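Annotated sample (chain length 167).
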Amino acid sequence: MSENGVIPVDQIENIILAIRGQRVILARELAELYGVTTGNLNKAVKRNIDRFPNDFMFQLTAEEYKSLRFHFGILEKGRHSKYLPYAFTEQGVAMLSSVLKSKRAVQVNIEIMRAFVRLRRMLSVHKDLESKLIDLEQKYDEQFKIVFEAIRQLMVPPAKPRKKIGF
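Output written by the structure step:
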């Protein structure tokens, strides 16, 4: 969190995951942002479960959880939960603002919404670039194939988010 109490959007972008074809944030990450325990966040959600349909929030399967732990190194040793974590979509995070009413929760939600919007914009730019690249590939012959492949590789986001260096 920065000195003015606002969480940088790029920090939030690093915790947004793609699961089941949706962009989500895990309950543990949200709880940390909101400054509450994961248990308290889950209790607040369960008290208001009718506000969280399956397209707003879902519980990970054991296989998804195992895959995340293996692929991203999520949940270091000693931080394992006996329960499968919940994942919140953008709509679910927005709904959390009606359940968690602290000033910090409101500010965090605003920043999370900004991060989701920024990701959507970046993805739409990539889709436009992708379609233009396909048009160019169809227009030009084999001698540019290497160039097109290099551009495609640059468009692919890194598999593991980079850690910030410095302050």
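Annotation: The helical segments are 9-13, 27-34, 38-47, 62-72, 90-99, 103-139, 145-155.
Annotation: The chain has a mean pLDDT of 77.
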